[in-house]
Every structure is written in structure tokens, then in C-alpha cells.
Amino acid sequence: WERPDGSPFRQRLLVVANRLPVSAVRRGEETWSLEMSSGGLVSALLGVKEFEARWIGWAGVNVPDEVGQKALTIALAEKRCIPVFLDEEIVHQYYNGYCNNILWPLFHYLGLPQEDRLATTRSFQSQFAAYQKANQMFADVVSEHYEEGDVVWCHDYHLMFLPECLKRYDRKMKVGWFLHTPFPSSEIHRTLPSRSELLRAVLAADLVGFHTYDYARHFVSACTRILGLEGTPEGVEDQGRLTRVAAFPIGIDSDRFIRALELPQVQENIKELKERFSGRKVMLGVDRLDMIKGIPQKILAFEKFLEENAYWRDKVVLLQIAVPTRTDVPECRLLYMLDFIVSDQKLTSQVHEIVGRINGRFGTLTAVPIHHLDRSLDFPALCALYAVTDVALVTSLRDGMNLVSYEFVACQDSKRGVLILSEFAGAAQSLGAGAILVNPWNITEVALAIGQALNMTAEEREKRHRHNFLHVTTHTAQEWAETFVSELNDTVVEAQQRIRE
Ligand code: ADQ
């Protein structure tokens, strides 16, 4: 592959993530249809001009037969994607089990599941073994495709073992690892039975990145307290070898959102929404349906606001879009999804119950205060919603960054709406000066923030929006990816120099 102008790329970049950025649907024995997803990471890497990126990951489908695997591999190659084939048992133990039932809640301060509190329990041990095995399977695929000089960028909590597996394969490989979730305080991390193994495996990387300085600091503290290693301003040192640790706050492809606002379909959606909610202020929540997003807390705060502000009852509407997420893994049959389905169902019914109560209390025959949708929106609909919103509410209990807050800001250049943002989202560090920061556990505080946002003067909104818009449009996903990869290259060069000295 060449760059659009015909010149060669400076370097090859192997991006390794649990999921490939495609959805694959089998149409026949040897026929697959593929749809490229358009998430932040994809746009970020498409925008990186110097590197020729290839993706390595699981395609999200179970392909037990060789014919199907071969056909899928060929189809994916056109999209620069290389599949790792995981069977159902591994997916159950590694992905649903260790990743999403143990690491995800722990990293978001929700603790370990009760039955897994003891390292000796069978389920914990087998899930951890499957996690290591799956990481080795990813490493095997990377090593098949790796060429000297390539940069390998591993992503997220699914692949904490990968740096160690890769360095075992080739000590000189340039390996970076980035965490998209928070890294919790070392006091939380030390409750994890496999705490040391995971830290050591990550430290095998040359560069370790987090969204915020706080997460990086927590990681370094965990390494010093749990492993007894030395933390330095640069990272973590172990017997003269330095693993560089730093913050690389992610961004979005802001141009994509800004350009979308001009599309006829988006303009049409905006017009319809304006007519539909005319005379009312629009408040918006867009979240994956997940415990960490604080959806019940958000709705309860809105209820408190309506309770205490009768004037606003027929003048404001909250649109809450909550997309059920982990059900997008087709082969996670009911049995495998049990833990999530139960907790997602509990969360959904809890949210439905609160919404029903509030609409019953404050609704009229012609209008209800909350519209709650349990589904995903397509890109034009999402952009239109962001554009017509007066107040966006992000009340995550913990969130690595939270890109919804960035997307909202990118779509608000004509409206200058207000962002209410949880102080426990990584985005609070970058958009804090423009947003109203809240503790989502404090319903009264959030209710007051809603009042403050709805009553804010145009000058104040303008000032806050300017700050956030400048940040979102300058600290983009492309900049994030470029900075990480060039820092990784520099780190390796510096390490080689140190060895020579
Ligand atoms: P997520 O937890 O998925 O990502 P977030 O950063 O908010 O959280 O990104 C969600 C994405 O999904 C956004 O692009 C949003 O537009 C989209 N989305 C959410 N709900 C939707 C809906 N109902 N309909 C359509 N689209 C919807 C993880 C971490 C985050 C971190 C990112 C990137 O948990 O903290 O910011 O990775 O590192």
C-alpha cells in the first residue's frame, strides 16, 4: 500500500485490539459481507498520514470451519484487517468472563464479583488462564505478520498480557499499550488476585499510555507498591530497564461531525427535531447501557429538578438514548451472556421504572418530560440530536474519557449549548473549564447544575463553549494517534542509546 500521493508510508503500524473495526456477516460457505465501523479509533488511524495501519483482532463471530476462516481472512485483507479466531469457550472465559466481568467493573471502581473474590475459585482461575491463552493467540497472529521496524500498538484491558507475549517473541519489537478505561487507584488494583502478573505483563511494553495523568499516576503507584519497583517521572524502572508511562488524552475526528451538520439528511433531521420540541429546551443523554454511565442517577437528578422547579415542567424535555452494548457479540448466546443480560436487564428495568414514574408524575396528555430509547442511533440522527440540544448531561460514575461529551461540543458551534459533565469522566480534565462539573452521586448537586445550565446567559455559554470547542477541534483523534506512535518510536531510540552508553 502507498499513500494517496503515491509515496511510500514511513512505517507500518500494527494495531491490535480485541475487536476488529468491522462487522462480519456470513452469507454463504465462502461468502462474507463486511461493514467497516466508524468509531473514534478507526478515524484516528485513518487520519494518521505517516503510518500504514493494519488491524489485528477478533471479528466478533465464531468461525469453527477452515473454509469459513480462509474466506473471511481473504475478505478482511482488503480492509487491512487480520483476524484472530477465538472459539466460543475462549470467548466465554476470556471476553465475557475475565475482561468484562472482572477487569471492567474493577477498573471502574465497582469491585470484583462476589464469587471471584478468592483467587482459589475455579472460575477465576480458569478465566484468568483463558485470558492468558487468548492474549497468546493474539500474539501468535501478530508475530506471523510482524516485520522488523513495525510498530505494534496494543489496545485496552483485553490485552494486558500481550506486551509480554510479544517481547518474548522478539525483544526488539516496538510495543506500545494504551488503556481506554480508567486505571484505578492502586488500593483497588491490589484486590485483584492476578494483580502482579498483569502489571508485569504491561511493563514489558516500551510505552504505556492512559487518557489522564491521574490514571498514569495510579499505574505507577501500583507498580511501586505491589511490585516494589521504582517509579520515576518518566515511568517505571526495573533493573535498569525503563517502561515509559504517560498520559495521551484521546480526541475525536471533530471535522467529521462538523461536516456532517451540512448534510441534507442531518439538516432535515434538525428541522424535524426543532419542530417536534419547539417551545421546550432539549436536554440530552447518549450512553451505552452500562452501570458505569450513571443513567439512573441522571434521571433521578432530572426528577429532583422538576420536583423543585414547577416553572420548567412543561418547558424542558430530556432525551435519553441508551444503546444496549454487549449484545452486539452474536455468538455470545444466552448462556454466555447470563451475567451481562441479568445486570443489563436489571439496569434497563430500573431505568424504565424511574422514567415511567417521572412521566406519570409530570407528564400531560400531550407531552412527557422524558423520552427514553433503548437503541442505537445512526450517525446523521446522532449529529442532529447533538446540534439541537440545549444541555447535554454526562453523569458517568467512572469513564476513561467519554467521547459523547466531545461529540456534543463539536456539533454545537451555532447553538452554544451547555455541557454538564461528571468529574469522574476523563473528559473532565480537558473540558472542565467549559463544562459544569458535577459529582453524579450527588443528585441535589446535579439538579442544581441543570437549573444553572438552563438559566445561563448567552455570554457565559459563549465563553464556555469557545473553550471546549477549541479543545475538541485541536486535540483530535489523529493528533492523539500520531503523538502516541511518534513517542513510542522516540522511546525505543532513547532506550537503545541508554544501552549503548
Ligand atoms: P465507551 O465506553 O464506549 O468507550 P464513549 O467514549 O462515550 O464510551 O464512546 C461511546 C461512543 O458510542 C461514542 O462515539 C458515541 O457516539 C457512541 N454511542 C453511544 N451511545 C450511542 C447511541 N445510543 N447511539 C449511537 N451511538 C452511541 C471507551 C471508554 C471511554 C473512552 C473510549 C475511547 O469507556 O471512556 O472515552 O473508550 O477511549
Automatic annotation (TrEMBL):
Record-level GO cellular component terms: cytosol
Biological-process GO terms, alphabetical: trehalose biosynthetic process
Enzyme class: transferase
GO MF annotation: an example: alpha,alpha-trehalose-phosphate synthase (UDP-forming) activity
Domain of life: Eukaryota
Keywords associated with the record: Glycosyltransferase, Transferase
EC number: 2.4.1.15
Family assignment from sequence similarity: In the C-terminal section; belongs to the trehalose phosphatase family.
Protein name: alpha,alpha-trehalose-phosphate synthase (UDP-forming)
Residues of the full protein shown: 81 to 581 of 948
